[in-house]
Task: structure prediction
Amino acid sequence: MLFRVSPLKSLIHLAQSRKISYGQLKSWYSGLVKKPPPIPPYSHIIQIGDPVLRVVADNVPNDLIKSSEIQFLIKIMKGVFKRYDCVGLSAPQIGISLRVFITEFNANHLKAFDEAERKTKEMKIFPQTVVINPQLKVTDYTKVIYTEACESVKGYWADVPRYRAVELNGYNENGEKISINAKGWLARIFQHELDHLDGKLYTDSMDRKTLTCTCWQVVNERSGKVEIPFNR
Ligand SMILES: [Zn+2]
Result:
């Protein structure tokens, strides 16, 4: 009899008669109802420990690159990429185990480094590019070591050795073949993103002694009262 109209309406009536606020009731009631977990593609970037980051991603069948499903995935990735102001983002990082990544190194990214660093690290502006089913060929085996970070290892960075130059072959979002010769910082970004598609993270190849919490000084300044956001 109590739940004949609707459980919530009856509960509101019960709350009023017992002088419980609507807010208290709503919070109690929502605690009873289990929310289903979100389904990928996510609008956030997943973090180290998520099994999806350890899987070798599947190729996108070439005839499906222009399908509405893959185009939808690219659209979601572009949105996340923009919101997080990424330099690189792979599909596994939003929970989809497919060989797709986006890179961009724009004027704002470049501004974060001084002139000397830009030169040493061979940094150049690179327009936003979607790469599907990439294959990487090392063209200069010289190993260069610089500090690297990853949106899936939020709050840390470390020194990582990478090859100085690579040739990247794959397809763009229109299904057209692309081939890019990359040196320096761009070659590093490509190797980082390729690793994501192979289930690897920079923590696998970093110099372990250099792993650094990016805000360790702020932790001291604020007596530990620091929060690291995992969404943007
Ligand atoms: Zn990453």
User: Anything to note?
Assistant: The longest strand covers residues 126-148. The pocket of zinc ion is lined by residues 150-152, 192, 196 (CB under 6 Å).
